[in-house]
Write a structure and sequence with these properties.
InterPro entries: EXOC6PINT-1/Sec15/Tip20_C_dom2, RINT1_Tip20. Residues 1-36 are annotated as: Disordered. This is RAD50-interacting protein 1. Residues 55-82 form a coiled coil. The chain contains 28 helices and no strands. The two termini are 97 Å apart. With 780 residues, it is mainly α. Helices cover 72% and strands 0% of the residues.
Length: 780
Amino acid sequence: MAAPMMEHNNHSSNDFCHLKRTDSSNSESPSEDGNLTDDVFELVQKEIGGDLKSLKKVSGLLEKLTLENKQLEEQVLTVSSSVPLRVSAALSTAEESRVKLESLLEKERLLSNTLQQHLQGSQVWADSIGQVLGQLDTLERHMKYLQCLARIEELSDSIQQYLMTNSVWDAVGAVDRMASLDMGLRESGCSHLQDFLRDTLRFWHKILKDKLASDFEEVLTQFHWPFISPPTQTLSPPANAQEINSQLELLVSQLLSLQTSDDLISEKKETPSHPGQSQTPPLSLPIQIMLLPLSKRFRYHFTGNRQTNNLSKPEWHLTQVLIWMGNSSNFMDEKIQPILDRAGAKVNAKVELCRGLLTLAQEKLAHDAPRLLYDDALFCHLVDEVLQFEKELRSTHSYPRAYPGVLHILLEETVFQKWLSVERKMAVEKVDAMLSAEGAWSSQYKDITDVDELKAPDCAETFMTLLLVITERYRSLPCPRAQLNFLALQKELVDDFRIRLTQVMKEESRQPLSPRYCAILNAANYISTVLSDWGDNIFFLQLQQAAVSVGEEILGPLGATETGRLASLEGSLFEALLALLERLRGDMLGRLLDAVMRDVKEKAQSYCKDRWISLPSQSDQATMSLSSSACPMMLCLRDHLLQLQQMLCLPLFQMFWQGLAERLDCFIYEELILYNHFNEGGAAQLQYDMTRNLFPLFGHYCKRPENFFKHVKEACIILTLKVGPALLLCDVLKQSEEDDYLLTHQQPSPESALNELGVYKLAPSDAQILLNLRSAWLNQ
């Protein structure tokens, strides 16, 4: 049976191959032929498969495919018969649309021609109407122009009539309305009308202002204004005090009503503000009049050839201004301010008077400052007086920060650059003087222990005081850019002083234990401490934020990282200087430690060469005592610690003795313990020398000095172990080194075994080395 079935299967395969070849020969293209053959093959494979029993499905499959083929042919015939009908219908619809479009285009052309003819006919009418409207517009503007002129003439006649009848309030009201009309014509292009109105307003305003000013001055005279000297309290008020007060209030109120017109007239006379000076509103009219006699006196004394007009004495006119402010303060608060409040004027009388007097001082300083640029002494004196004047103005007279004082005079470019150069020159000269002084490297508080914690030498303390004075001088400047310029100068001076310290240190480096060398170290530490405190100061933090935005122009390129640190307040403006000072301090401490260790190592040579393996045991000695060979080393350590404790400030001495302890720990461990063998007596003697003599030397400076000698302490623990625990520890260490050693829960690890003995610093390999140093015990 197998052979016939195989033959049948081969026959079926041949049929399929024949079917594929037949289809391939009948196909129109290679791609379509391949797809069709694959589809037929997949269909037969799906319906029949490789099972011979499924061949009975072939007849049903053939009938199904025949039926589907017939249905497809019918659909094709139906579609081919309906397509010509649809195409003809579409063509007829398109033809109808074309005809309608041509009809619409014809109508559009007719309508466009008609409209064009109509527009040509109506253009004449439009032109004539436009001429009429233009004439009407011109007439309307002329009428308004004439109405304005009439209004101006009306107000002018009214003011004249009011003044003739002494109706001052009505005249003031008419002038105010004329000022309102002036403001309403600001956007107008009628320049001649504006000029006429402004001239008319100026004419009547001057007449009215002169009249009121004359009356106001008469009333002020009865109050003894101006107060050239401190006012004295009269025993009893004058009989007509109430009448005088009423006249004063009336005149002040009337002058305030003229403020609008006065501002309009004086607006063209305003001068641009100086650099660093904000624009301020004009002075109120009553205050302007009150300032007139003071202004005359000021110009009389401080201009021209008067002896009081002395370039070397700027304090004369500045002090005079402050005196007038103080003398007039009570009168402004008690008499003028209540009137201003009742009139609804949001003005502080005392501040307004100060503003007016400051104008006199500003004009005088702006005139004198450029004349002093070539005389350093006089220029420095001027700067000092200006700063002192500004300080007293803000503190004593409570002048608001919102209004400019006189500091903007110092911020003009030429004056400011001169100020910076003089500050730099004077600072460098003072540094030279302080470093060459006899007591430059001694502290003036050396005999007062409570005060002299930092043990700063005089030169360092004087230098930081100089920087602090510079800070106070520029702290009140209104311009952050100017403040940053001074900050850059301070950083330059600090770096220059650091370089000078480095130079002096190199000269003293041959004797690092000398008082002068320690004084240099104290100076570097003191400057670093003060700069660190300044970095947290609110003033320098504000400058730090200003440096983020404008600092690159003054402080140089900062870089993205440094800018980010400054903006987030993580860094400090003095970070670079602090790093340099820290490096200098670390270098000097290193040299100091090297010198002490050289001395200690020299004194410890005999101690390191003791025969530790042959010393008597502890039981053979009545009492333990310090090794005689260790005495020079201990005395050397004690003397150096006491000496440097007196010469170094506390933070530096803390760093010193801790560094010394660290180096000494390594020295004794490496040069003494690891280079010798120990018997029981030698180990006990070493432990006694360390725990009862060396460690207590450092016990004056901390509670647990042994924590700074971990190598020595733990080595003594291992060396002084009894024989039994030492053998057990050695066994644990040896087992841990074997390759096939598996750590179990019952067997402790070498680290845990050492920890139980109090050994945490030394590694198991170090413990093994130390155990080998007591080989004389372990061989017993």
